[in-house]
């Protein structure tokens, strides 16, 4: 069994990866942390992502341990600078 | 009525101000965040604001709701602009009104501080020398290694 | 340019706001004190503001000058109205702008607090039941038995 | 030798006394405190003025011990309520 999530990359992360979205397959029961490890394992430029980036799952901020489910939207959030 | 919105068109401060006020209220406060011509000693010529729009709308509404509890009224309006902004243009406007001023100052300040902590918005600064860069930001609470 | 004035005509908030702002400034704050429809549980229908005009002009200028030191800029305007005011009318408007917001909130708050402590202005409240009374005030520092 | 000062009364004090200004003669060297005693000694309604009212001398707040000079403008300032 596997699950598929949609990742989003904004601002500096999008510039780094040259893309704003990517679908990623993960084993059942994977967490945000597993997603980050999977992405960084792809090598450059993905390995330049932080080991513990801020992410939002389905538009809510989530910790690294958060479990992912089929169809989740996982956004990689560089340090924010609104106002 | 609490009002919160991410917008792409120029912000008219008087329109944001007009969203608050009530016969019970003795204090009205309007805060404007404006693009300034310098940052960390570098001359800035403009700024591009980018956001995670669907989430930013939700987070801004959440911040507005929390601020209204502090304010004690629902006379609160906050508008954040994204896109390409020139020096002197308003990036954020916050209007509040309440019977007493203490709650107004507190709620107004809360909104801008929380925006800076957790609204998924990023700024790309354009410098006078032609360079540009993402403005260093803040890691939102409850995420990553935090 | 610091601007402070006692006026008898209605205050236009946008005109007070237009007195501040500068390419260096990232934060603009406008405070409005407004006549509200109640006080200590009584229904209020209007308010007459009286002042010791010559002294009030001097004290307001003094407060504005002290606030500008906190603000770190001279982009500060404060206007206080006297005479007969209706519910919802603006009695005082304070606009400030500065590079950073902390100084703006601090200076704006300072102006309104000092006005309440030492500006020689008095309010006569008109109540819904036809009665009216002078609003209980604050003894200015450095006077009387203080 | 005597000195003459101009007193001003505002708001509740003016309502109390029924006048907004009064010229008062005082002995040379008199203080704000002496002025208040002199006024209160006139009896009603003057004796309803506070024993230690806030005053401004020539448009600056002054303590009770402040010495007065010929021609001074002495304003009786009820508790203020601007804003």
Which short descriptors sum up this protein?
heterotetramer, A: 83 residues, alpha+beta, Ubiquitin-like (UB roll), 2 helices, 33% strand, B: 146 residues, Aldehyde Oxidoreductase, domain 3, 5-stranded antiparallel β-sheet, 4-stranded mixed β-sheet, 3 helices
Report on this structure:
The complex is a heterotetramer, with two copies of chain A (about 80 residues) and two copies of chain B (about 150 residues). With about 80 residues, chain A is an alpha+beta fold. Chain A has one domain: Beta-grasp domain (Ubiquitin-like (UB roll), Roll), CATH 3.10.20. Chain A contains two helices and five strands. Chain A has helices at about 10-15, 30-40, and strands at about 1-10, 20-25, 55, 60, 75. A five-stranded mixed beta sheet of chain A has the order 2-1-5-3-4. Chain A starts with a strand and ends in a 6-residue tail after the last strand. Chain B has about 150 residues and is α+β, with helices and mostly antiparallel strands. Chain B has one domain (about 5-130): Alpha-Beta Complex (Aldehyde Oxidoreductase, domain 3), CATH 3.90.1170. Chain B is built from three helices and nine strands. In chain B, the strands form two sheets. In chain B, strands 3, 4, 6, 8 and 9 form a five-stranded antiparallel beta sheet that branches. In chain B, a hairpin with a 4-residue loop joins β8 (about 120-125) and β9 (about 130-135). Chain B is globular and about 50 Å long. Chain B starts with a strand and ends in a 12-residue tail after the last strand. The model of chain B has no long low-confidence stretch (mean pLDDT about 95). The chains are: A alpha+beta (about 80), B alpha+beta (about 150). Chains in contact: A-B, B-C, C-D. β2 (about 25-35) of chain B pairs antiparallel with β2 (about 25-35) of chain C.
């Amino acid at each position: 069994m596997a699950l598929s999530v949609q990742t989003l990359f904004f601002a500096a992360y999008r510039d780094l990866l040259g893309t704003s979205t990517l679908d990623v397959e993960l084993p059942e029961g994977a967490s945000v942390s597993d997603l980050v490890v999977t992405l960084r394992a792809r090598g450059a430029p993905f390995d330049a992502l932080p080991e513990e980036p801020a992410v939002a799952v389905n538009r809510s901020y989530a910790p690294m341990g958060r479990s992912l489910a089929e169809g989740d939207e996982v956004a990689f959030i560089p340090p924010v600078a609104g106002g | 009525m609490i009002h919160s919105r991410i917008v792409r068109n120029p912000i008219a401060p008087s329109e944001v101000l007009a969203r608050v006020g009530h016969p019970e209220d003795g204090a009205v406060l309007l805060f404007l965040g404006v693009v300034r011509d310098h940052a960390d000693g570098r001359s800035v010529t403009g700024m591009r604001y980018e956001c995670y729009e669907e989430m930013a709308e939700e987070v801004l509404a959440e911040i507005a709701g929390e601020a209204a509890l502090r304010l004690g009224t629902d006379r609160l309006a906050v508008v954040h602009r994204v896109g390409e902004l020139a020096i002197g243009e308003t990036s954020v406007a916050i209007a509040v009104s309440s019977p007493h001023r203490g709650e107004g100052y507190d709620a107004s300040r809360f909104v801008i501080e929380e925006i800076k902590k957790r609204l998924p918005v990023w700024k790309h600064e354009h410098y006078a020398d032609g360079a540009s860069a993402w403005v260093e930001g803040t890691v939102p609470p409850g995420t990553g290694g935090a």
